[in-house]
Amino acid sequence: MDFMSDSSRNQRRFRTFNVIDDFNREALGIDIAVSLPAGRITRYLDKLTEYHGYPFKIRVDNEPEFTGNTFTY
Asked: What is the pLDDT of residues 49-73, one digit of tens each?
């Protein structure tokens, strides 16, 4: 899981939340929005688990997005 950001042609910033299976390099899902609060991310992950099931492990980098209380419980 990782976040990325970019801007459109009219300089409007947006973010993407990418979920990739490291074993086979399959993109399981990408959520794109101007704002991606923790509640939206957890709902998106719940939808992905309905289709793909729960992973054995989750790997993320040490960005501050994944250190909030919503993700640690």
From this structure: 999 999 888 888 766 777 767 666 5
Residue 53: closest CA among 7, 5, 16, 19: 19
pTM, entire model: 0.81
Measured CA to CA, the distance from residue 3 to residue 33 in angstroms comes to: 11
Radius of gyration of the chain (CA): 13
Q: Residues near 61 by Cβ (< 8 Å), separated by ≥ 6? A: 2
Q: What is the pLDDT of residue 43?
A: 92
Domain boundaries defined on the chain: 2-55
Q: Which token pair is 73?
A: 């419980």
**CA angle at residue 51 from 46 to 57, to 5 degrees?**
65
Structure tokens at 6: 């970019």
